[in-house]
Amino acid sequence: MKFVNPYFLFALFTIAIPVIIHLFNFRRYRRILFSNVSFLKEIKQETQKKSKIKHFLILLARILTISSLVLAFAQPYIPLGAKVINKKGSVVSIYIDNSFSMQSIGKKGTLLEEAISKAKEIAESYKPADIFQLLTNDFEGKHQFYYTKEEFLQLLNEVAVSPSVKKLSEILTRQNDLFSTVKSKEKVSFIISDFSEMNFDFDKLKIDTSVYIHLIPLTANEKNNLFIDSCWYDTPVIQMGKQVQLSVLIKNISNEDAEKIPLKLVINGKQKSLASVDITAGSETEAKLSYTISEVGMQNAYVEIIDNPVVFDDKFYFSYEVAQKIKVLNICQSENIYINALFQNDSLIDYKILNINKLDYSSIPQSDFVIIDGIKTISSGLEKELLKYTMNGGTLAVFPGVEMDINSYNSFLNAMSAPVFQKLDTADTKVSKVNEEHKIFTDVFEKVSDDMDLPIVKSHYPLKSKTLSSDEKIMELQNGEPFILSYKYGKGNLYISSVPVDAEFSNFPKHAIFVPALYNMTLFSIPARKLFYTIGDDESIEVKKQDLSGDMTFKIRSSEKKFEIIPEHKNMDMQTYIYPHDQIKEAGNYIIKLGNNDIAGVSFNYNRNESVMKFETDEQISDEIKAATAKSESYKKIDVLDLKSKTVSKAIEEINQGVRLWKLFIFLSLVFIFAEIALLRYVRD
Hints:
single chain; about 675 residues; 36 strands; elongated
């Protein structure tokens, strides 16, 4: 027990007054002589004994009366936890979880409405001189200031549901940043939320021991939800006229099975595919949607299910691009009939031949796939351009020359830390193994048998890998050496062949495996763009480098043209990086524009953390606090506000003032006064 006015306790010395009165107030008696006093002595002894008890009880009643009055004026209270009342006022930060899960229905409407109501009650429980901060998941600039009670209550009317999601550690860090600007006042934090398990990172909290933290959990009536978690294509290459399969991951967060849930795919406003999905309770399933690519260019799409009452996660947006042409550049000493035959008449390929003697370096970064075809020497200038091209995401295939300068080739390969060429080996051998798990041979073979016909090799340049090299054999010779290998460099891919594309070295150019090998290298040269982004993650969007002139700017526009922003952008090497910086708040398909030109499609979805309807209970949170407090005293100032048996205002009153006892002592003083009156009036000596 503690006291608001402890100096009043000095008044307890006034207890000495009734004690002194009782000790020194001796009564004078008159002596009367009787002939026989034996009987009177017995009466006198009995009367004196009763009188002493009565006087003692009166003294006790007066002492207790004075003590109760003194204690009442000292205002005793029982503090809650480690809290001590601060007379200098309070600074109060109230966080309201306004994420999508707060749209769930609770006892008094939606959880968000309930949270706003509780925030108002908290503010009303404080003094007019106290100052307040409002915090939501949006982390808006206006929420980084302190306000009076009236201003704070006005701000509460502006709180609305938001797609943003914040973890508990982020919230407390934000509150503590503003608390650090205040020195003398008492610092109090209130966290009002449904405390989703996905965002309750209690183990990562950074505790400020000067702040009292009160958690207020809210509970929804129902916690069931069916939602689309993500989607992806089974192949990274999407070609015109090809059939593709879209996988959609759907989760059922409930105790009931979901049967015959309709799932539809819409692309550019047209329904492309439809399926029916069954999902058992508490599980997930991958639904497959197949369709044929019938358009080139930018494709804006979404998949959708129907589920109530939580609907924000029933539609999942994505976008992709079907390339009109894949730009292939062949840098050669002289034209190669085998490569020309493969690419020249293909409508999907924009094929360009560049003679080494008339080299235009500007063509390299504009190409999707570059082939070094049998040139004698890789010059320092070409080496520099190829390194930059591959580092920034380009795909390069190196076929050695019949009479090549090994040193110039190896200088280039050493700069990449890639495998290098050795002296020509003229021993006859053959390809003995194909890596069917490599992406360029995906779906090429129905079955790989031991006696399969593979290329015969007459001469080759052995490839020697570096220590700890990350190269991967695509095709392997009988002696275990690589025939063709792949190597990852920067963001790009490098393919190295141990033989030229020449029939004198091997029958590879005439073999059936030549076409799928080189063609799939070309197809996979198209960089895989992200199908979708998540609102609030603040990721950069990567597109091909764009040159801006004059007052041209990038814009991100809603496909319905209802919304438009101007994002930040940076040009680095072969790429342009666009940063929306959390300006996109609504899920949907968007278009990146430069001037009047559409550069790319981009899609944003709401964070699915809010879809997993699993929440921390009061008991679970309390247990975690107890466990943390046992390890560190810094957690003593965190508690769960108990609102099951009391109102918010009552709970806040107890937080601010503890359990006040002055009324109890006033009542006791009255009891003791009446007890004294009763002793004086009804008890005779």
